[in-house]
Amino acid sequence: MTISVGDRVPNTNFVKVTADGPEPVESDAFFAGRKVALFSVPGAFTPTCSAKHLPGFVEKADELKAKGIDEIACTAANDAFVMGAWGKSSGVDGKVTMLADGNGAFPKAVGLDADFSKFGMGTRGQRFSMVVNDGVVEQLNVEGPGEFKVSSADYMLETL
What we know:
alpha+beta, Glutaredoxin, 7-stranded mixed β-sheet, two-stranded antiparallel ribbon, 9 strands, globular
C-alpha cells in the first residue's frame, strides 16, 4: 500500500552523508520535530536526476526554507559514497542532505519502489517528493513513469 498524506512515515534506516563520513540515521529521528522536504530519485548521476531534480532543490533551497522547510533531503537506492560524490559534484553543501538507501528500504516501506531491472538498475525508488512534518506526510507528489513535473522544487514551492 502506498503512503498517503496524513500517514506517519515508517521507520527505516538511511545513511546520512556527512563531512566526517557516513552516519547511520533512523527515519524516525531524522523527521522528528521539524519540517523536511524529501525527494527521491531513481539513481545518483542519472540524466534527469543530475540535470534537473537535484539542481532544482539546490537552486531553490533558500526559497523552500523561507516557506518553512527546515531541511531538504535527497534519497536514492545508492550507497553513501556514491551519494556523497554526487552531492559534492552538484554543490549541495549546506543546501541538501544526501540520504543513502542502498537497499531501497524507504521506497519499499512507503510503497513507492519500482523495478528498474530493464535498465540494469534493479529495484529502486520511484521519482517523488514529499513534505514530512514531525514524521507525518503533509504533501506527496509522485511522478508518472518517465515524467518530471510534480516532484520538482518548483512544484513544491507552488504548493507550500
